[in-house]
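Class prep. Write one:
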Amino acid sequence: MNSYSNYKFIFVNGLHRSGTSVLYRLLSLQKKCSGFTNTGVPEDEGQHLQSVFKAAKYFGGPGKFGFDRGSFLDSSSNLISNINREKLFNEWSKYWDLSKDFLVEKSPPNIVRTTFLQEMFSNSYFITIIRHPIAVSFATQKWSKNSLEDLFQHWLICNDKFKEDERKLTKTIIFKYEDFTSNHSEIVNDISKLLKFQLLIPTKFEIKDKINDKYFELWDRYKNSFWTKRKAQILINKYEDKFNLYGYSLK
């Protein structure tokens, strides 16, 4: 019988529309790794393939789950037990190739659950991708129907939670989506150092650059429109300094 103690776990973290899917696919294609494929659930996300904890949809879904503190899980969660550890591993194992050394899972709410996952599986690696709040917010808006302000606030809540938890993680790396798409070889090398094996990028694997541009254009129109420019300025005044701490700007 396979035991979770025989494996290394890679958890991919980042908000919806932050680039987690392309990163997850790249990791899953490595010879040493196994991810979920053809599961029939959205984006093959592990949150939908288990019954130990609730998926983001129970807390409002994309752009909303972070507003419900019930979606947060940490190392003090009462869900942490040997029974739940075995149950979670067994439920996910149905979709992993257990002949591989590294088992990969990706779900957006991981970003507010890292210390919980580390407590569940101590031999875990956390690879976190962060993307410009303008791009994440506009891209998520079609699902959440939230206002831009709500989505900016949600971005901060979730990334602030991760920032708080990050110092408690033993094997972790965080980088920007913009760096990953513009200079993926450097990021891939950094991930390789963390995992202690060299990641290879398949010949036909495509990592698109400049995807943010269309969202920046939407933001420019929002800032300059007669109907919304006052709202845009209010958002800039309120959130610019907070986003600057992450290396991003609304200006």
Summary: The mean pLDDT is 95.
